Fold:
Amino acid sequence: MIRKEYTIFEIGIFKKEETESYLEIFPEFFDGTEGLTNNSKILIFLWFNGSDNEDKRRTLRVHPKGNLKNPVRGVFSTRSPVRPNPIALYTVNINKIVENRIYIEEIDAFSETPLIDIKIYSKELDL
Structure:
């Protein structure tokens, strides 16, 4: 099998403060947020950089939720951050937008996690 490499650009960063979570969009990508509105739903894609190393990328079987009491399963049948490409997907509501910050509901990602994409949620496509 021939492996290909791809380049993924960070478009921003996920940040978590005491009571708020937000996406800080880098200036060169800010125009891409035009059309996003308060109280709308979006899909955000994060790169779980804390789970990005050669060993974790080769791990294909895990205990779900990291709990050794759970039977081992294939990583593609879990939500484990340990996977060949540590991409995380969340569906979130936009609470407010202030300049280059999109405030969202709380998620289980670490602050300073790279943001790699945003897509508008669609009832027809995102069942």
